[in-house]
Amino acid sequence: METVNESDLRETVQFHGHLCPGLALGYRVAKAALRELKADRPRDEELVAIVENDSCAADAVQFVTGATFGKGNLIFRDYGKHVYTFFNRRTGQGVRISEDYRGFEADGRFAELRKRQEAGEDVARELQACKMEKAAAILKADEKEMFTITPVVDLPPREAGIRGSVRCAVCGEKFMESRGRVKNGAIVCIPCFEKE
Ligand SMILES: [Zn+2]
Ligand SMILES: [Zn+2]
Question: What residue ranges of the chain have pLDDT lower than 50?
Answer without folding.
Answer: 1
